[in-house]
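Morning - magnesium ion inputs below, output right after.
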Amino acid sequence: MSEPSPDNSAGSGARIVDARVIVTCPGRNFVTVKITTSDGVTGVGDATLNGRELAVASYLQDHVCPALIGRHADRIEDIWQYLYKGAYWRRGPVTMTAIAAVDTALWDIKGKVAGLPVYQLLGGRAREGVTVYGHANGQDVAEVLDEVAQYLEHGYKAVRVQVGIPGLPVTYGVSKDKLFYEPAQKGIAPSEATWSTELYLRHVPGLFDAVRGKFGFGFHLLHDAHHRLTPTEAARLGKRLEEYELFWLEDPTPAESQDAFRIIKQHTTTPIAVGEVFNSIWDCQQLITERLIDFIRTTVVHAGGITHLRRIFNLAELYGVRSGSHGATDLSPVCMAAALHLDLSIPNFGLQEYMRHTAATDEVFPHTYWFEGGYLHPGETPGLGVDIDEKLAERYPYQPAPLPVNRLLDGTMHSW
Ligand code: CS2
Ligand code: MG
């Protein structure tokens, strides 16, 4: 490969001298980009795409990192445009996760050079802390109720509930783990789940009746339908759950067809949240500008980084749509740290998902953010306040772990 031409354009500041991809698996796989400047300042970005980690690692190693060497690290927007427009083959989860990782690392560097936490570069605090939600899940309603009680005792102001469906061996969001959730299973072939919308729609309203009946309405209650309903089924469920005043019903139907959400909105006032699988503003432009959703769940790691996610949230603000970023265990602490700086600074913040990481993961990714009274705080360290312990990361080699696939009871493939 010919040497990339250094960026000879005028520009202040240090140049990028190293850009590395670190793949590690402290219990689950994470991909991280680490960029170093000629001043010796480093920055990190999350590049983890659950089940497709090596695709992003290769995109970065083979096509992105070599082209970064010699570029001015302070030119974040220019590098974003260089990687986006320069790819020709635009958008998509792999490309936008790779761009996100570089973008996040450059914001980390800019904060360190400025001696400020990144939220200060984004306009400063717009709130005292970032309200987060946890996941109460259980095989049956009684188990979920126990979990909800624990989250409320922990001080959470928002709780997502997911329950096993009688007649189905497994279902989304119900796992043996409690504080964290890992759907990808080690091995080459994906595990296979089975699904019945009929059994689900018959059972799940009882869950909300039990939760509100036991704990009342003094906290935000959420649920994730995980892309499994048709728009009409989603409208029916939303209408059925109105009396339980959900904060949001998430991913009610696959969102490739943005105008399908008109059907849901025509029938129910249950707020709708969508976006964790989106990777660009164009994936949600109609959903936002036609107010077909109430919360946009795009994330730093999968939607082009801080630079692009801020654009999405700025568009959303014009239409009264609030943020609700994805924050699952399979997004690394680097993504969580970056998300908190954005969450703290935007005017239309809604809620931040917070699935904790295991102790092994937290050791590999030392970070300053902390949980207190239902809020996360990013801390005051210059940059993002997170790093990767490369020596420790080396001890955990990559392990193939695909996400499950899902079939209806008659064997038809269905969204997982
Ligand atoms: C879920 C995720 O957290 C959520 O809202 O949709 O757990 C999702 O299933 C995983 O991130 C997929 O890797
Ligand atoms: Mg979800």
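Note: The longest strand covers residues 16-24.

O.
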